[in-house]
Amino acid sequence: MDNVTHALAGALLAATTIRLVERRTGEPPTTFRRAAFTIGILSAELPDGDLVYSGASLGMGKLGYLLHHRGHTHTILFAVVGAVVVWALALAMRRQLRTHAFSRPLLWLALVGTGSHLVLDYTNSYGVHPFWPFDTRWFYGDAVFIVEPWLWIVALPPLIFIARRVAWRVLGGLLLTGILVAAWRMDMVGTGVAAVLTGGAVLWLAVMRTVAPASRAALAVLGWLTLEGVFFTAAGVSRRLVVREVGGAFRDVVLAPSPGNPLCLSALVVSERDGVYRVSSATVAPAWRVYPAAACRSDARGLSRVGTSDLAPTPAIAWGGSWSAPVSELRQIAAGNCEAAAALRFIRVPIWRRGANGDVTVSDLRFGEGEGSFASIEARSSASCPHPVPNWEWPRHDLLGAAP
User: Fold this and answer.
1) From CA 115, how far away is CA 111, in angstroms rounded?
2) Whole-model pTM?
């Protein structure tokens, strides 16, 4: 997820912690309130600390980012250790927080905060591998767009009313206005969805204004969880629709809902039959009886080597272009080029093209194709092998076998 969403989750967790302490001990001191919001937001952002070293500092360029972002810091092991460090530093800096009434809630806040980052990152199609070093597989939620406006809309109004400083209220108002303006301006959202988002924001502001102050944080958390449930339900139905249509050739499907609209999901369907690897783009409508796929905006994904899908469109699935190649080509690339083999430890939907000089460009179609994509790697036949390369399992191990 984007870092604003992570920060909002941390702030909601902090506000909930403050209310729980308030119910037990009465109004907590200002020191505790400040520490709770600091710990909540910092711990919710902490796993993205890998951005410090996952780019150019490793000397691996884009490949270093692909392999090390959402890497070792996005694991349960790091989440626990990082949370304890944040908590211990807070207690070392403020002696007033060392009583059991304050220290224990702050520890739980730090643990849930770092954990929330892993859970939120799991919800989209980028993936995490939280169980390293015991399990090196990637796990994908395929349910929530990486910048989901509904999550901002649910979180910001209660935080605006909970904030005691005018500056924080103004910041919250600016963020809420910004996400709504972006919804109206983005082509991929559409005016109908933007109108619903705006109406939902106004209604939620009115609800937060009228409910008891002690209930605002709890209602926001409940609303957040309800939204996640809606998106995951839509993704689960969409996956079953795709599997039913593709049949025995099915290998995987990458799903991403349109921002603000769980009724329309873009899909990249990976299939394999008789030694031919194929990626097909599609639009899936989980509630197709009331909102068919034809009503959704299509997503062609700019496929090269395009062919027409051999599957007929239905009210639930509108098929787009497809890309295909022999599976043997992918296996040869993985076996004969160490840069490409390293990239394939991240790439979930590989497409590739060979140059006249023997170099090969491998891209992850989840993020586009060609030089403009951050997930497109030009693997040179003459290049030395990259390092350090983490031992993540190939996402396409079903076609490639176990990674060396």
Assistant:
1) 6
2) 0.93
